[in-house]
Amino acid sequence: MTEKDALAKKVVDHMMNQDLFSQWLGIELLEIKEGYSKIRMTVRKEMVNGFAIVHGGIAFSLADSAFAFACNNRNNLSVALDTSINFTKSVQVGDTLIAEAIEVHNGRSTGLYHITLFNQKEERVAFFKGTCFRKGKTLIEP
Asked: CA distances (Å), 17 to each of 20, 37, 52, in order?
């Protein structure tokens, strides 16, 4: 593991310790590298809507957490500036979702990330795009 990736993991561990919503979602960290994150969660019955499919806000939230972990893990506080999601396949109770966030652009004041959500069958269920604004503050002491 590189020094930069070690810092990225330390920052995201700190974020997860403070992030009660991601904890409620049941998010597990699978892989953290500078500008990258891969996380997983299992859909529970209280996460579905009246059509017995996952509520769109749950899938969005998983992608948003992956986005946050990827764009903040250089220890530069970053907040969402613009986000969007496209759903391509429905998700059911018991499905396992994996969100993989890939950095497309790392600028001084903004960053662009593409996040893909997969189910346990490795089918793509959603595509999320996020732009962040870098505030120039640290999250943890280096």
From this structure: 8, 16, 31
Identify the domain containing residue 10 by its residue range.
Answer: 3-134
Q: What is the value of pTM for the model shown? A: 0.96
**Cα dihedral 39, 44, 47, 51 in deg (nearest 10):** 120
User: CATH no. for residue 14?
Assistant: 3.10.129.10
Determine the average pLDDT of the residues in 113-129. Answer: 98
- Name the percent of the chain in helix, strand, coil, to the closest 5: 30, 40, 30
Name residue 10's amino acid.
K
Per DSSP bridges, beta strands 78-87 and 36-42 are: unpaired
Strand 110-118, strand 36-42: pairing: unpaired
